[in-house]
Amino acid sequence: MPDGITLQKGTTVTGTVIVTGGGGVIGRAICARLAGSGYTPVAADLEAAVPESASSFEHDFVVMDVTSTESIRAAVAAVVREDETIAGVVNCAGILRDSFVGELDEAKLDLMFQVNIAGMARVVEATADLIRVGGSIVNVGSLTGHFGRFTGASVYGATKAGIAAYTRYLAAELAPRGIRVNNVAPGVIRAPMSPSMARVSGGEEASAAHAMLKRIGEPHEVAEVVEFFVSPRSSFVTGQTLLVDGGVVAW
Ligand SMILES: NC(=O)c1ccc[n+]([C@@H]2O[C@H](COP(=O)([O-])OP(=O)(O)OC[C@H]3O[C@@H](n4cnc5c(N)ncnc54)[C@H](O)[C@@H]3O)[C@@H](O)[C@H]2O)c1
Fold this sequence. Notes:
With 251 residues, the protein is of the alpha/beta class. The chain has one domain (5-189, 218-244): Rossmann fold.
């Protein structure tokens, strides 16, 4: 484990951070950024995310399906030894499926709520007691929870808006334990677009046009903000949603 970075007297940045969806594009960037600050990130992701990652992945990886409490508990037990605490959790696992009116698909509907919302709550349930005092939970929401210009993203947007509320309630509940909870809501970020994402966003050029900065974001720009919320540099910030969207919602 790397030596800690002391930010102020008695505050040392080290420890394990479990990053769900850590095999994905933004999840990997988050793992890399956390490792750069002295944390030990553990990417927790579906088995399907392993083969693609295996050769190039620099961080610890554990198989976790956030739709299954059993899978989450097994993964956490494999990562955290008895009597150990962790520095935090980043809930980054998420999926987008289009949900145009007239085409609503029950399986897509269920999966988005199971992964994006219920998955987050299951992971928190399994890890909250392990997070040390001064530790942090960071949820990854989305721009789509805060605006309405992506037609076909209504259900995904609803799950991501739900994350903002979930974050506030969880922050209040965990504050007495010394754990902060915040929500980073990315705008459109450079990643291979799934067919659903391309359908709802209209592609990279159309997405960039919504932003004040007239571009889409890079994964490391999200990771930077996530790392800030994990770290004690944000020690008086909890219950917040911060949009990392190039100025879409503010415009
Ligand atoms: N890429 C964007 O433009 C964008 C914008 C706003 C928000 N987001 C959010 O950021 C997060 C990461 O997105 P990304 O662009 O890196 O996508 P991605 O598909 O590369 O990463 C998502 C990861 O979540 C994992 N995952 C899916 N279902 C899971 C499950 N049941 N259990 C565990 N892991 C599971 C996937 O295997 C994948 O590795 C998601 O929550 C997404 O909703 C992305």
